[in-house]
Amino acid sequence: MSSTVDLLLTEARRDDEREGRRLISALVFAALTVSVMSTLGTPLIPTIARDQHVSLESAQWMLTVTLLVGAIATPVIGRLGDGPRRRRMLLTTLGASLLGSIVAATASSFPQLIAGRALQGIGYGTVPLAIALARQHVAGERQRSGIAMLSITVAVGAGLGFPVTGLIAQGLDYHAAFWFGAIFAAAAFVAVARVVPKPQAGGSAVVLDLPGALLLGGGLAALLLAISNAESWGWGSARALGLFALALALLSTWVLVELRDPHPLVDLRLVSQRAVLGANVTALLAAMGMYVGMALVNRLVQTPRASGYGFSATLVTTGLVLLPISFGSLLSQPLTRRVIARFGIRPVLPAGGLLVAATLTLLAVAHGSLVDIAIATALLGVGVGCTFAAMPALIVASVPPERTGSATSLNQVLRSVGGALGSAVGVTILAAHQPGRAPFPQESGYTTAFLAAAAICVLAAAMAALLAPRRVAGASPGPASAAAKAAADDAAKETALLMEESAAGTVGPGAFDGERSR
Predict the structure, then answer these.
(1) Side-chain-side CA neighbours of residue 275 (13 Å)
(2) Half-sphere exposure (Cβ direction) of 91: Cα atoms closer than 13 Å
(3) How far is residue 82 CA from its own chain's centroid?
(4) This prediction's pTM
(5) Cα 21 to the center of its chain, rounded Å
(6) With contact defined as beta carbons under 8 Å apart, do 453 and 289 qualify?
(7) By C-alpha distance, which of 296, 307, 302 is closest to 439?
(8) What angle, 0 to 180 degrees and rounded to 10, lies between the N-to-C axes of helices 86-105 and 110-122?
(9) N or C: which end of the chain has fewer CB within 10 A?
(10) Alpha-carbon distance 358 to 346, whole Å?
């Protein structure tokens, strides 16, 4: 009798293992799809500007609009996807990515391309949902390895998106690159629909801060439009000043709404925590610096040699030059853990910001070969990855467990906002160095923009050093009980997972939602 029971238990465990592997495989495929899409349009910006007869500043919205929509969509989808709704919302984000790819692939006009990229931005909510589902349905070591695999997939997929889509677009045209994304999204949708288990009926009603979402989206859109067009309109023009005033009014109102709402989209009350404020300011500024660098490198290497400084790089070469950013972000996570173990959390954020600043300064003075640029992009990935990896460790150590989800969600939103701002700021600086009807900006524009981005990262490092707590909460002196040690070990494992998710999401979509409870 006992042998029969043992046999049945063994078979049940094997079934659970098979189901766990299938689930993780489907979630990894979903994460790979959206991480590829997150960088899909970046190398294509100069090509689309030429084919659609728009300025490079306008074409840069191929990246900016995806980041902007992602910044709003991630916390909204995290809220809507709470509990039993996760599977449904995961299918929704993949469906939006599929629809966006089709819209862009069939586009005959630039506004349709922007609309397609905006829909793809909704897919940024896929990664936090996939990680939440892995936490929900898989346990133990398989859960940790599965989340690690998801995190690695995000970084690798984002990196592969650069050269692979460039290869497709170069061999055919840019529409084919978006059809490639559509095929991936359709396959991921089917895999998730077939493998991810349906939830039990029920679930509490969702309290969604719709006014907060609308105010944040409107305010950021007005701000980015003003920054992107102020150079051509004139910084003192009525349109530019009107948009800046509108952005200020909407974002100020958003802050007031979030502080008064019992269920805010983003919990701004947590900013009063010194460590959280330091992590968030650093996230915003570091993301700005990184995306200024990405935008400029993308344009620089594709600029014709006839300009006197470009490389006439193909789409594939451009993708390969940007690829080291992802490898650098993968290296950053174990490096950050070792530094924290040796020196503590406090020095990591300033060090990461200074590394990014030094890299951007290197690009400003030495961008004469593709090898120099590739080395710099790898260092950029390491620096930003280390900075982002340290943020959740600092936040988890500084806020109560029940507030961790909201705190990390705010940090992720600011990372996306910083990326969108950096994307707009970089091309605005270049536009200021493009005299008259010259087809390309002067080389001094790149030098100025890289140095400006470096200055932003120096400011990020300084703010991180000033705002970092002298002592991290949670460290209790004296001997600890066995239960306390076990709890500390569990907390350390959880923090390690958060660090891995955050660092791997340096380039691609972020890995946090606002509804995870600790």
Answers:
(1) 23
(2) 13
(3) 21
(4) 0.75
(5) 26
(6) yes
(7) 307
(8) 160
(9) N
(10) 20
